[in-house]
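Project standup — Tuesday

K.O.: blocked on the structure for the chain from last sprint. Re-posting the sequence here as requested.
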Amino acid sequence: MPVAKILIAPDSFKGSATSAQVAKALADGWKISRPNDEIVIAPFADGGEGTLDCIESVTPGSVRIPITVQGATGIEHQSSWLLVGSDTAVIEMATLCGITTVAQLDPLGAHSYGLGQAINLRQAIDMFTINAARRLGIAENAGSISVGKYADFIILDQNPFQIPVTELHKVQPFETWIAGEKVFERVKP
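H.V.: unblocked you, prediction finished:
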């Protein structure tokens, strides 16, 4: 019977060890001194380095999306973001353009341009269309416009692929159709 139940929930040690590595090392050390204690390991992240790893470890079915982005000093590198469910993107800025992406710190020249490169418009639209249909198990019948699929679509006032990304928030729907039926129509002024 354990003498005590010990929770080990560390954050990462920036640039040297992940939260899972730190948790394992602490647990191994604890066991040397107190082998009868029950140890629960719960790696933790505060939203920075290691966040994707922690969220991925508790969300079965989440998918890492590999990307190439500029680091804090403009040098391109491989990174990723996490698709959780069908429509939630988790982005870890530390891996996109944090200090671990540079060889030499340059606080006056550093930038976060890589953050804006993380998810492109096609990926964002897919999250709310075909990805959602796949997650719901209805991709054979919905999620994209194809012969034989439900007529689920939205008529917009602008083509989102032909305007600057900075103008996307201005795009408005005229109509929304689900399963071949109009479920929304914007009232014309």
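K.O.: great, moving the ticket to review. The radius of gyration is 23 Å. Helices lie at 19-33, 51-58, 93-97, 113-117, 121-128, 130-136.
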